[in-house]
Amino acid sequence: xxxxxxxxxxxxxxxxxxxxxxxxxxxxxxxxxxxxxxxxxxxxxxxxxxxxxxxxxxxxxxxxxxxxxxxxxxxxxxxxxxxxxxxxxxxxxxxxxxxxxxxxxxxxxxxxxxxxxxxxxxxxxxxxxxxxxxxxxxxxxxxxxxxxxxxxxxxxxxxxxxxxxxxxxxxxxxxxxxxxxxxxxxxxxxxxxxxxxxxxxxxxxxxxxxxxxxxxxxxxxxxxxxxxxxxxxxxxxxxxx
Amino acid sequence: xxxxxxxxxxxxxxxxxxxxxxxxxxxxxxxxxxxxxxxxxxxxxxxxxxxxxxxxxxxxxxxxxxxxxxxxxxxxxxxxxxxxxxxxxxxxxxxxxxxxxxxxxxxxxxxxxxxxxxxxxxxxxxxxxxxxxxxxxxxxxxxxxxxxxxxxxxxxxxxxxxxxxxxxxxxxxxxxxxxxxxxxxxxxxxxxxxxxxxxxxxxxxxxxxxxxxxxxxxxxxxxxxxxxxxxxxxxxxxxxxxxxxxxxxxxx
Lengths: 241, 252
Ligand SMILES: Nc1ncnc2c1ncn2[C@@H]1O[C@H](COP(=O)(O)OP(=O)(O)O)[C@@H](O)[C@H]1O
Ligand SMILES: [Mg+2]
Fold this sequence. Notes:
The complex is a heterodimer. By secondary structure, chain A is α/β, with parallel strands linked by helices. Chain A has helices at residues 42-49, 73-79, 95-105, 111-124, 140-152, 170-185, 197-203, 221-226, 231-240; strands spanning 4-13, 16-26, 31-35, 57-62, 65-66, 80-83, 158-162, 189-193, 206-211, 214-219. Chain B has one domain: MetI-like fold (Orthogonal Bundle). Helices cover 83% and strands 0% of the residues of chain B. Chain B is built from nine helices and no strands. Chain B has helices spanning 3-47, 56-78, 81-95, 101-126, 130-138, 143-173, 185-196, 199-233, 240-251. In chain B, helix 1 (3-47) crosses helix 4 (101-126). Chain B starts with a helix and ends with a helix. The interface between A and B is large, with 42 and 31 residues. The structure holds adenosine-5'-diphosphate and magnesium ion. Magnesium ion (MG) is lined by residues 42-43, 162-163 of chain A.
């Protein structure tokens, strides 16, 4: 059974039909890359999965539950982590406290245990040497790696990435993508909105091509990249590859 | 006006001035602190954005509370504190309890300051990037936990200059509380002037004392602000925790 099922989801902002009947599934342990031109609704789709937005029609089933019917949104969000384009590290605390806070507040871990888990995850993303640094002193790539460690600290079952490398200088894109690749190797379930087609080709189990609020095409990366069936997909790939 | 006369008044009546300074500082400081607490509460509640998933009942309740808080803010910012002071003092005194003048003074300056602080806190909160809220919520933190641990600390830091300014304002504006006869600096000065008939010299001394109090407060506030900014932008000075972890690891 898929861990995430998106079924005929619709969503509008005012008169703007942003999601216009979206359906796709994510299997446990898979990496699904959402690609498509900007403004096609990719971020909105992710935000709906995290309940930062609510949908108008359709269903989003995550871990067997219709998420628009659950009562404890906080408990749900803890299971579905999110990594943002702008990192969004807590500016008022250092790296380690960024990683400890939600463990203590949400999972009620004691501080010592939370600290150990935080250090493990920070070491995993190569940021173990920066635990006392404040976000303002880090580079974009470092911030994003901390943001990934912070998301991992609350033991999510699914991670959502919204263009995690789009705000980075080119030389820092690799270090962040490598961390995400490592997570893929550990069979973390992930939905990644990205413009890094090389990454999607290498790491994705499935690529979903979205255009103006609908899924135009989905399939294995080699199908999408080598034999796109849809003319719009072909045009888009010709532009970005 | 003669400076010699000023010094004479100061040396003769310094105890009265000191009592005035003491009362002024107590009223201004506690008014600012309690006002800040009121402001955090009122501004915090006003800045709460309900989840998209919130029920209709909660949304209506929020609207009603917002309206009440808005009325509080407008009334206390839109009328002079001197009028608030006499009105509230006599309202309570004649209808509820014969309260202590000091208590009344601190009460009045606190709710007055609270109205200003609420707006300061609210704009401080609004200046915090929405991404901070979304990141905290995406980790499963409640809106209250997010507000207390992530948003408010940053809002207070953003708003610190404006918050500090309220202290300066209160040191000066507590002078209107002489209307309810507490022994703050202005009230004391009036008594001294009334005794000496040296109005110009007495009030010159008073003005200089206020100027010293506000300048000194500004210096302290600036030092605190500088310190707050430094912690978040400087590289960690000593990394003792990290070293102890390294050592612990080697021992494993
Ligand atoms: N909160 C919002 N309010 C109104 N319109 C929005 C909001 N968020 C996104 N949109 C609109 O929805 C459309 C899709 O945006 P988005 O999901 O960010 O696309 P993508 O991530 O694919 O670039 C855009 O036209 C955008 O202007
Ligand atoms: Mg986007």
